[in-house]
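U., I forgot to send this yesterday:
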Amino acid sequence: MADAPPAPPLLLASTSPRRRAILEQLGIPFDVVAPRYEEQPAQGVDAVDLVRMHAREKAQSVAGEAGDRPVLGVDTDVVLDGRIYGKPTNATDAEVMLEELSGETHLVVSGLALITPAWEIVEHESTRVTFRTLTPRDLAAYVAAGEWEGRAGAYAIQGRGAALVRRIEGDYLNVVGLPAALLVRLLAAHFAGVYGFG
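Result:
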């Protein structure tokens, strides 16, 4: 019996090292291309609608380079009481975000778009994260470590940010940056056996 042909690499429309690491962890082949889409911060819009739109636009921005391969676009935001917490602009901004998240339960919401020349699917995943109550010393130490840079909500759960968290409900990898359980479900349904799922 001949060996099955290798799975065509997904085209990941993201330069995030966290997303690359999760795909590697799952054994999913992929190539990386930077999306040609600038997401704009927004308030007063539904977070789910926003991350779904950003994920789709990121994937669409590079779909012309994919050929027949599936394109994966992802966007993640942190949401507390309807307010969207994007990436902080500086250390002061990061400290304010973390102080507001302290002792509270927020949502990490990701949009995921999987696009081929024949069809596109846009889904989302939410994970509930509860922070412990943070002291001024906790805040100062975490901000000084610089891990907040480039992170929605100003923390990285896979790093020192794990010490800020009291409880998590849902997909941990979604908080890291890629809703892995959702992606696996979609690949199993639409590419049964190709990527080792379904």
